[in-house]
């Protein structure tokens, strides 16, 4: 599903990723953990195609295609979803309208029929209900006035509507209380646990992994993957810290 080979990336001319290699097969959830400044968010943004994150070397294959050769909207249409640590607010833009336009833009790019207004509302209501969210909240401007937990739930609704092949989730657990964490974890499992889908889950802490059990855990330090293991590695990191295992 996702293959990264010797990836180097800079931000504002500063090298951040320094030869990162990683493979995430279809049907698996992989967690990336590591200290602040290790390059975790840089990896997410570089894969998503965010401006200012310059790839200087390496290759990335996604769904048997050259990811780095695609524009950000092409990556999304291909099936890549990027979840943000801090979802942005967009005043004046209805969340429902934003989601409908986004979904139909992707469907057009794949030569699929657009969803009608009624079809989209049914889909949005189904996805919101599965996450314990009133669909009427999505009539508000994008994330405006939402709590941290509501923003993350809404992002999971967005992921459910877009139905991606690969979800890259950057510290989705940031700022969540226990109830919101449980709901978000259940959403990830419901939407993305499938033989033809994969998840790259970036987190500092073990707690989200209690709800979304990863197939593998990788330690990212100083721009490289320095250690990989099973779910037990996350517990070791929780006990010992990064200095002891990197």
UniProtKB/TrEMBL annotation:
GO terms for molecular function: ATP binding; ATP hydrolysis activity. Residues 2-245 form the ABC transporter domain. Transmembrane segments: none annotated. The keyword ATP-binding applies. It comes from the Bacteria. InterPro entries: AAA+_ATPase (IPR003593), ABC_transporter-like_ATP-bd (IPR003439), FeS-cluster_ATPase_SufC (IPR010230), P-loop_NTPase (IPR027417). The keyword ATP-binding applies. Gene3D superfamilies: P-loop containing nucleotide triphosphate hydrolases. Keywords: ATP-binding, Nucleotide-binding. Pfam families: ABC_tran. Belongs to the ABC transporter superfamily. Ycf16 family. This is Fe-S cluster assembly ATPase SufC. It comes from Sphingomonas piscis.
């Amino acid at each position: 599903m996702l293959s990264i080979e010797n990836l180097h990336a800079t931000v504002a001319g500063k090298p951040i990723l320094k030869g990162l290699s990683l493979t995430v097969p279809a049907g698996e959830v992989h967690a990336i953990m590591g200290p602040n400044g290790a390059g975790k968010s840089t990896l997410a943004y570089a894969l998503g195609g965010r401006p200012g994150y310059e790839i200087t070397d390496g290759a990335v294959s996604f769904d048997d295609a050259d990811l780095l050769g695609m524009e950000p909207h092409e990556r999304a249409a291909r099936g890549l979803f990027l979840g943000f640590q801090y979802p942005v607010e967009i005043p004046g833009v209805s969340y429902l309208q934003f989601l409908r336009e986004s979904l139909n833009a992707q469907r057009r790019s794949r030569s699929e029929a657009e969803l009608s207004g009624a079809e989209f509302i049914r889909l949005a209501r189904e996805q919101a209900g599965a996450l314990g969210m009133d669909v009427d909240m999505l009539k508000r401007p994008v994330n405006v006035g939402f709590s941290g937990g509501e923003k993350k739930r809404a992002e999971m609704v967005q992921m459910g509507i877009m139905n991606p092949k690969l979800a890259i989730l950057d510290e989705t657990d940031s700022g969540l209380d226990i109830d919101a964490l449980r709901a978000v974890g259940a959403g990830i499992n419901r939407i993305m646990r499938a033989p033809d889908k994969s998840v790259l889950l970036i987190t500092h802490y073990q707690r989200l992994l209690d709800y979304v059990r990863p197939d593998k855990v990788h330690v990212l330090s100083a721009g490289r993957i320095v250690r990989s293991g099973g779910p037990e590695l996350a517990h070791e990191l929780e006990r010992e810290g990064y200095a002891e295992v990197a």
